[in-house]
Design a protein that fits this description.
Shape: globular
Helix content: over 70%
Number of helices: 13
Number of strands: 0
Order of helices and strands: HHHHHHHHHHHHH
Structural class: mainly alpha
Radius of gyration: 20 Å
Distance between the termini: 65 Å
Strand content: under 5%
Length: 361
Amino acid sequence: MQGALLPDWIGATVALLILIAFTYTQFRHIGLALAAALAPLPGYGVAIALHMPSQPLAYLCGFFAALVLSSEIEARICDGVSARAASKQTAEMSFPILVWPIALTVCAPAVLLFVANDFSPLAFSLAVGLCGASALIVVPAALRFLPYGEEFIARANRLREKRERWLDGLAFVVQPRWGWSVGGIALIFAILGFSGGENSGAEWPFASPAASPMLAALFAIFAYVTTRNMRRAAAFLLAVAVLACLTFWICGRIAFDAGSLPLAIALASGPALIVAGQATAFARAGDNVAVATLRSLEQLATPVAFFCLAGVPVLCIFGAFGAAMLIASGGIAALVVFPALTTAIYDLLPPRVSLDAYRVR
């Protein structure tokens, strides 16, 4: 890859070692770490065998799905569920939520196929689909056969308690005053990003003026299909708008491959989309807005954080510094900006409550 810090095969080896190191830091179980880090590899190998361009963003899409699945399976095992049952339950409950972020990253590069008659991004889409499917299949299949002793469960529970204390620092996002404050800060960053892009002389970072409305429509469709909730979909789209303005600023300072740009934005917004989908699932189970948001962060903050921590150095190894900045920004958008915007929108437009809800039963 042009601009890579290391030769291709050395860079790929170092990148895999980085992914394994971060997943082991999260799970402290070598089998879980190898399964999560290497789950997209079969799909990536098929993509290379079909002469598709080697794209680390495609691998990272599968890695993110594998990380989320592995985290959920680990949590269920620590709660006393057998490995086979945990894998089956996670597949049944997490697949419907994970499918949409993967589908978004598959469809986003294909936009250039329609607006610029450029067929090269179609190979990116196929590579993303192969890596995502590989992760969804390999992780539940492999993790059910790994050994999980009492020492691992005790160690995992201790780590989870430590991380939950760290996650308490994110509880402010469900307070309306902080929701509005973070929303205002996000608006300032969006304006600064757009102004910075304009002042640098950069062009709007898409191949065609028609790409922007088509990508916006695509993100809007996936946001609503994932959440079936206008308020959460609006919060997600506002967070993506901030990422788009930051992308404009990044393109004015760092060379960015136009063909991989939609894929990078879709991958960076994927964590926010899965947080939105998980919060919606908790809300449908009866939780109020604040509790649903906090529970989704409690479940997904750790894999999102480790995904960003691992993804940034991997992309830098391949010379994709702009994409690395987007991934880091996407993590902040998922854990802070989107939840805060959701809180602000619900505070501005509270849902209607019927009189039946106030009856004493």
